[in-house]
Design a protein that fits this description.
homodimer, alpha+beta, Alpha-Beta Plaits, 4 strands, 33% helix
Chain lengths: 97, 97
């Protein structure tokens, strides 16, 4: 099992609609990429100062399945059209479980 | 349910022993803090360039349970004694699930 974790911060000018579109279009990947075993997407809860703004936690059976997700054309479209226009910073880890 | 996610990068001088001690002592919190529902800790798998080095994903039933973990004296000891001496950067999100 491989767990992909990525945290984003958004630019100051990012709108609520733009942030919501990232979450909606990432969640829709579940129906497009059957290799996804578990998928958690969402905005920071606002408990702590200094946090990143948004998180994705996605589980896959194998590294190859993760690579299908990473490189999938629809995923790459969401990155290019929804994430990159409002991206300030990104932190990621893949964990073997 | 609240999911706490944190990613670290380590200083260039951090040793394998120091990195392993972070993982070991964080995992041992499962036996000390019963509010932890699920706890995944580990080093980046090395699939992608530019990643952070280490991840923690911890689930709790409530925000209050997460705060017990966050502020627990033993957790604070691990942060002070094991994490901070080798910490280069940190990114975190708490997600309501």
């Amino acid at each position: 099992m491989i767990r992909h974790i990525v945290l984003f911060t958004w630019t100051d000018g990012a709108t609520d609609e733009q942030k919501a579109a990232v979450a909606d279009e990432l969640r829709a990947l579940i129906g497009v990429i059957p290799e996804i075993r578990s998928f958690t997407v969402g905005h920071d809860a606002g408990i702590n100062q200094g946090n990143h703004d948004f998180a994705v936690v996605a589980d896959f059976d194998t590294v190859d399945d993760y690579l299908v997700y990473r490189d999938h054309p629809r995923h790459q479209e969401v990155i290019a059209q929804r994430i990159k226009p409002i991206l300030a910073s990104r932190a990621a880890v893949q964990l073997g479980l």
